[in-house]
Amino acid sequence: MDFLTKLAEGFIGIFKAGGESFMGFVTGIIPLIICLMTFVTALIKIAGEEKVDKFMQKITSNLVLRYTVFPVIAVFVLANPMCYTFIRFVKEKYKPAVYDAMVSFVHPITGLFPHANGGELFVYLGIAEGFRQLNISQASLAVRYFIAGIIVILIRGIVTQKLTEIMANKQNVDLDALDEVK
């Protein structure tokens, strides 16, 4: 009988742990995201949606800026996971590639700007500890991560854009027409 009691306690314990994790989200990240969304929306309203859209369209119309400057601004200003809301400023045909660039940059930015992705900080700090033990500058590691990250997101953005175009052509999807549907 003791076995069944422990089994039942263990079973319900899984759901208690899930509930505690859920409450952590409810009291932690969800209010943060709502506050950030409200702030960014207010900022866009104050600056003027047309001006912000025009500025963002100018940046995202350039291949290099679309996969370097745009993701850096989004991740730096809004952090992970809120940065993905910036994708609303991108033409439909570029959204998969911009998302790929952004999601690939949330780790490399962490060394210089820990606020951008607190969840990845432990990875960076673990590697940085090795540098510290070797008496190598952790700042140089952070800068190298950042620069390598920008190079990687540019490459990934371009490759993903080309792959999206290839897949769309194979399925006879007109990517330019997607923006007209909006």
Automatic annotation (TrEMBL):
<feature type="transmembrane region" description="Helical">
    <location>
        <begin position="141"/>
        <end position="159"/>
    </location>
</feature>
<dbReference type="Pfam" id="PF03608">
    <property type="entry name" value="EII-GUT"/>
</dbReference>
<keyword id="KW-1133">Transmembrane helix</keyword>
<keyword id="KW-0812">Transmembrane</keyword>
<feature type="transmembrane region" description="Helical">
    <location>
        <begin position="64"/>
        <end position="87"/>
    </location>
</feature>
<protein>
    <submittedName>
        <fullName>PTS sorbitol transporter subunit IIC</fullName>
    </submittedName>
</protein>
<feature type="transmembrane region" description="Helical">
    <location>
        <begin position="22"/>
        <end position="44"/>
    </location>
</feature>
<dbReference type="InterPro" id="IPR004699">
    <property type="entry name" value="PTS_IID_sorb"/>
</dbReference>
<dbReference type="GO" id="GO:0009401">
    <property type="term" value="P:phosphoenolpyruvate-dependent sugar phosphotransferase system"/>
</dbReference>
<keyword id="KW-0472">Membrane</keyword>
<dbReference type="GO" id="GO:0016020">
    <property type="term" value="C:membrane"/>
</dbReference>
